Amino acid sequence: MDIHEYQAKEILAGFGVPIPRGGLAYSPEQAAYRAREVGGDKWVVKAQVHTGGRGQAGGVKMCTDEHEVLDAANDLFGKRLVTHQTGAAGKVVYRVYVEGAVSIQKEIYLGFVLDRKTERIMVVASADGGMEIEEIAEKRPGSIIRSVVEPAVGVQDFQAREIAFQLGLEPSQIRQAVEVVKGCYMAFRDLDATMVEINPLVVTGDGSLLALDAKMSFDDNAMFRRPDVSELRDKSQEDARETQAADRGLSYVGLEGNIGCIVNGAGLAMATMDMIELAGGSPANFLDIGGGATPERVAKAFRLVMSDKKVEAILVNIFAGINRCDWVAEGIIQALENNPVDVPVIVRLAGTNVEEGRKILSRSGLPVIRAATLEEAAERSVSAWRNNNKHNIKMVASS
Ligand code: GDP
Ligand code: MN
Predict the structure, then answer these.
(1) Helices (H), 194-306
(2) Could you tell me if the CB of 102 is within 6 A of ligand 1?
(3) Do 166 and 216 share a domain, yes or no?
(4) Average pLDDT over residues 111-123
């Protein structure tokens, strides 16, 4: 789960990380009011959307009076910000954050990630901040500092000092840097984060450290025990299809193709997607209905897949171990009887109670295309989609 910059800043400030003065706004008028509240004579108006690269996409605006703040906010609200991370769909701006602007002497990158190799939290830092870490890795790989944290003791002062020295900070800034590094680490550890990033962490004109941007992501599987963090979820920033699925206990990822997939198990889902590609088609989604799928769950999965207008064929591929093919078959019938679909449905069942499942399907008289193997299922899906897709149906209907 991702959160907004202003939320991450508030959390990190609670762990001793210095941040600029700022306030959140839901309207241009409120943004101008926030600028007055913050004080000073320069402000930055920042789009709050779940993506990096806002600066380059016009989502970060410098202002020197209240009218400019109003105009900047006016321009941002409702805008679909497209950055190199969002894809073409972009993210809509519903909140802006107004901060007192600061003069920048130096921009530092400071990140915390889980390093799979060492199975530890790793600090990643660079004196070439401001750019995205991918860009730093490409252009200035030598500037990247990596430091693995020993979980039994956490980030040690000497370790944080070492990072600060390598960043080329002045002796007077070292103590502050140690506080920032330790604060981020504690926020990461105590809140089940998967990523903390301050980019840039700046040295201001007067020589002090300040987090100008902040980003945090959290482990979805730990959110049941972090109600304070879960509350920060902003569904307006998520793929609506994925949010709906998560709310129904299904694991769903929307893709660009036309063949909807209903599968049990992540491994089988990926294999199914590969087989569709191999047969010359393209999957519309990844959907894992999990083990122990009840007829109701299968029916929900159908509704979810059909809500994607791109879907022109549906492949149900179930390998029942914990699942039962007869239940899945009941679910398919329930789904198709309640909400008839205008696309071909291909079903491949294997495993527990498979004979029973097949009988239920053929007794139902529903126009379901059956397949015995995964390969056959993928091929039949692709040819059914080609011969009988919505596009053709529409052309026939209109001629
Ligand atoms: P991002 O593009 O989404 O990562 O958004 P950031 O919050 O990092 O802002 C982009 C850039 O705007 C930063 O790297 C800074 O160079 C600049 N910026 C943001 N706030 C200030 C500020 O208060 N003063 C100055 N001079 N520049 C700022
Ligand atoms: Mn940034």
Answers:
(1) 227-230, 240-247, 266-278, 295-306
(2) yes
(3) yes
(4) 97
